[in-house]
Amino acid sequence: MERRDFLKNSIMIVAGASVPLSALEFVDPKEVLAANLDIHWAFLLNTHKCVGCGFCVKACKTENDIPFNAKVTRTWVERYVYTKDDRRYIDSPDGALNGYTESRIDLGQGNFQEIDPNNVGKAFFVPKLCNHCETPPCTQVCPVGATYKTDDGVVLVDKEWCIGCGYCIMACPYGARFFHPTDHVADKCTFCYHRITKGLETACVNACPFGARKMLNIKDINDPNTQIILNERVGVLKDEFGTRPQAFYIGLAQEVR
Amino acid sequence: MIEHAADMIVHGEAWTIKELFVLPNEYIYWSIQIVMYPFMTGLVAGAFVLSSLYHVFHVEKLKEIAKFSLVFSFALLPVAMMPLLLHLQQPFRGINVMMTPHFTSAIAAFGIVFTTYACIVATELWFVYRVYFVRQVEKIRSQELKSVFDIGRLALFTALTLGAMDTSKEAQVKDHKACSTMAAIGIPVACFLHGYAGFIFGSVKANALWMTPLMPVIFICSAVVSGIALCILCYVITQEIRKFMAKRKMARWADDPGAPTVEQLEGAKQEEVSMVSNYLLYFMIAAVTLEILDMIFRGYTQVKSWDILREVLLDRDFTKIFILQYGLGNVVPFLMMILPGRNVRRTTIACALVLFGVFMMRWNVVIGGQAFSLSFAGFMHYHLPIIPHDAETFKEGFFGALTVMVTPFVLFYFINKIMPAFHKDEDVVH
Ligand code: SF4
Ligand code: SF4
Question: Is the pTM value of this prediction over 0.80?
Answer without folding.
Answer: yes
